[in-house]
Design brief:
Length: 365
């Protein structure tokens, strides 16, 4: 019996030598699954579908163990039928996982794109609003930080790093809120219907007086940055202007760089002004003195501050920031100077219309 077994073994050895000692080939699905796993990792499956990816890797590891076990068998007895089936199933599972990852990425890509568009619009709107009220310096630093971070987020989105982009988007709100908080208290004056009603009353009274006397009158709208000249109650000429560095505020005291609001009149024509020519108005009037006293009693202005004066409509260019005056191009002040006389009413308001440039821009916030 032993002799027969030995003979059989020798026969098998001889046969293996004669046939080239070949076994069944490893199924191509094995290599495909290895490549698939690499592609899924590269696509971010670990980030976008972590639980499913763990299950997938566990199945792949079990398949590889099964493959190793089959490879350890004697060469003639190796069969990869079950291995092929197992890896076919792994590939199918990986395909579904890949589709889920792609779906997650599309969703996150859309979310990130929407938020980028939202913050880009918000930054643009805040910059526009700040420019309308000459308050760019108060918000500029925060908005610049927001813009730099938004540029970084856009690059992350382009690279497909949507999760990292989402995390960084959380920080932009801080900067845009800082910018908004710096200017919203000022902007609110120009959306307050009671305040606008008061300004409109002043303007209507000025225009009506011009109509009754058939004379000239001047209306200045600070937000519109326009000076309107009326003749006999009718619009006669319109000029572009600039206002004080803090021109969006109502002037309270000397040195606040704000442009006053109220009903005034020309008290002097200054032909030799250092700003070409100028029309001096009677700031402070009685209303200004009353507001100054109230503000001082409430501690809203520096204790030693005076009420100030020497507010003019002058030349020097509409883009030059003033200390509270109304600035015009030299050719325009030349023309206005030659038209109006001492005593001409001058009414300065924040804005005239309820629906104005600020209310329109604020709808986009």
């Amino acid at each position: 019996m032993i002799h027969g077994l030995i003979k059989t073994v020798f026969l098998l050895i001889a046969l293996s030598i004669l046939t080239g000692c070949k076994s069944a080939p490893v199924p191509p699905e094995v290599r495909e699954a290895e490549q698939q796993q690499h592609d899924l990792w590269k696509a971010g499956a670990e980030i976008y579908a972590p639980e499913e990816y763990k299950i997938y890797k566990r199945g792949l590891r079990d398949g590889q163990i099964h493959l190793a076990s089959e490879n350890n068998r004697f060469i003639w007895f190796r069969t990869y039928k079950d291995v092929k089936t197992e890896f076919t199933n792994i590939l199918a599972q990986g395909k579904l996982l890949g589709e889920k990852v792609d779906e997650h990425k599309r969703t996150k890509s859309g979310n990130v794109a929407n938020q980028i568009a939202f913050f880009r619009n918000r930054i643009e709107t805040l910059r526009k609003l700040a420019s309308l009220i000459n308050e760019g310096s108060r918000s500029s630093r925060s908005l610049t930080k927001a813009e730099l971070q938004l540029a970084e987020i856009s690059l992350l989105s382009e690279r497909g790093s949507y999760t990292e982009a989402e995390e960084k988007l959380k920080g932009i709100s801080k900067y845009t809120e800082q910018a908004a908080n710096a200017i919203l208290p000022i902007l609110n004056r120009y959306t307050d219907n009671d305040q606008i009603t008061k300004w409109r009353k002043w303007v209507n009274e000025t225009v009506e007086a011009s109509k009754r006397s058939q004379s000239y009158s001047i209306v200045v709208s600070k937000v519109d940055k326009r000076l309107f000249l009326y003749k006999g109650g009718r619009s006669y000429k319109t000029y572009e202007i600039g206002v004080g560095t803090n021109g969006s505020h109502d002037k309270l005291y000397a040195g606040d760089k704000a442009t006053p609001e109220g009903k005034y009149h020309v008290i002097k024509k200054v032909a030799g002004s250092r700003f070409h020519k100028a029309l001096l108005i009677n700031y402070p009037n009685e209303d200004d003195r009353r507001q100054f006293a109230i503000a001082k009693s409430k501690g809203l202005i520096p204790h030693r501050a005076g009420i100030g004066g020497l507010i003019e409509i002058h030349g020097g260019g509409k883009h030059g920031m003033t200390y509270g005056c109304v600035a015009m191009e030299n050719q325009h002040i030349e023309e206005l100077f030659n038209i109006v006389d001492v005593g001409t009413p001058v009414t300065i308001v924040g804005v005239i219309e309820y629906e104005n440039r600020i209310t329109s821009a604020m709808k986009n916030l």
